[in-house]
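Before the break, one more example. Copy the sequence into your notebook; we will annotate it together after we see the structure.
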Amino acid sequence: HSRRLDPMQAISAGLTRVGLKLAARAPAIKRVASPSAVRADRAVLSRTMRSTVVPQAFATEQAAAMKTADAPRWALETHFGYDSVYSSSIDAELDAIEQKCKELKANFEGKMGESLLDAIKAYEEVDIALTKALSYVSLSCDTKLDDDKAQKRKASLFQRYTTISGNQLTFFSLELADMSQETLDAQMENSPELAKYRAYIDDVRRSQPYNLSKEVERALTVRAPFAGKGKVVEFYGNELSRLRFKDGDEEVNMEVLLAKMTSSKDAATRYECMKALNTGLKEFERVAALSLNMVAGSWHAENTERGFEQLRSQRNLGNNVPDEVVDSLLDAVKTTGVDYCKRYYALKKGILKNTAGLEKMMWADRNAAINIGTSSESYTWEEAVDIVKAGYEKFSPTMAGLFQEMVDEKRIDVPAQNGKRGGAYCSSSYGHGPFQLLNFTGTQRDVATLAHESGHGAHFMLSYKQGILQFHPPLTLAETASIFGEMIVFRDLLEKAPTDEDRLAMLMGKIDDIINSVVRQCGFDAFEEKVHSGRASGTLTPDEMTEAWQQTMVDYYGAEGEVFDSYADTSHLWTYVSHFHNVPFYVYSYAFADLVVGSLYGVYQKQPEGFEDKLLELLGAGGVKGFREALEPFGLDPADPVFWKDSIDAHLGSLMEEAEQLAAQLGLSDASHGL
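Here is what the structure looks like once it is written out:
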């Protein structure tokens, strides 16, 4: 069960990474879930498909190679003190940790009501030690995906961790959750220091109605590395990373193909890339369907055995978001959000027709760049650092300083390399982090990705003071610094745009990102709902999953001919969305975060004075404050039923109006302006 993962369970699940993106388009988080989840590493799952600052073309492979040949690598060995993943000191530390876990169990199992403070401190000490060793291994191996020996070493270490956790630590969260309120109150009174752990304690205790017996939870945890969905999902992820696609006479990986499709100024080339992608994914459908059937079946069994009422309730509990708030978000996106989506792509269709001679709007054209204006199409690493620092400095010198620390201390692995995990993420790595993994090729999207992941890093650095059990913010606030930082950099560049054409290109790229984070992600959620609902009645075939995918596209983007002239060669795109396998029903979080931060930015625009101090306080609180308490100083309440529609109107609607006005002034739009 994986409602809430402690930091080490999250690491073993591959969830200590924020902003993981596959060519800025496909989620690609690797995860093997632990069934006896204690606490969700909620700030670590990151959003996909969001990293455009200036929507111009990608640099060519040759230019990218030149710009990243000497790009910095992270200095993991310096920060962690290991010489490699094979270091004997890692094994020695795990030996010591195992002994501490045995002592923790011997000292506190059945006795937590007598000395809760000492128990939590002992557990915290184990958490910190595990985080060091396994964070290093996880990060290091993410640059060695083609090294079977290193991957085997990682799997062995995490298997050992899971055995230790299952046998020695399962009791901890269960007994804390089951503790009577009277006993807890007495402990709080006798040990005032416990008050600083209140958020963690409350978090664990929320799961009490859904916990199984100690024996069952232990068995589930211990068996996880050997049986169940975990190994199938791991196989799916590994096979996905090995896929190669036809590109002329060459075979390329998915990142290269998607980059070429997004960057190309030629519609025919974009379509050929999409066709090659979909053709290659058809050969992968049986692997993807097997994994997704396992995940959906396991999710159904978990919901039934643990007593969750709705499909998303298990995820919502871990995110500490009421079901009705999520339902309200999804309803608003499917109505107001979809209306804006169709309106936007109608606008984009007209602009592409008038600037690039587009004859038919295909799915491959959805993320096509608007190639007008004079802005640079590529950047060196040094230029990217300067741009991001300048943007942060304009808003918050504190966050700009934290960003510079990450650069100076070699906490960012910059270049795109073979054998490196695709996309981008920021790992919290409590006690030694944060660390960013990028695949920087010099594009303008890469600049935005740097701004985004650096926001996560700054968020972690500000919240570390809350301790390992409470520094992670709740899901509802996890993207605050990252998306806000990205927006600040975007607005800074927008102000400096030399022409209206440049400004329009930038606005269109930003709206692309928001549509992808809000409407597309909620469309993903709707696809998951179809698959999971069907799986409750039996195994689904690949064809049934494809049918669910195609129906979802119509629901969220309109029927063929309404905006997009054809959905040809899109039938199997569901196979590469790894979130479906790794974290069921997580994708709505990206819409949630984007709209909350959009509303925050609106508050900042109206009243910038004093905003930085309030935002830094919010970020520094980590997981100590829930979303309602944290957002109250800004006058925002996502629990209000009208919040989501208002947020979509203010965030997406305002940018749409700017883009439509500019397009009309430039004579580039054929789109209707009315809803």
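The beta strands are 245-247, 250-252, 412-415, 425-427, 435-440. The radius of gyration is 24 Å. Try to locate both features in your own notes.
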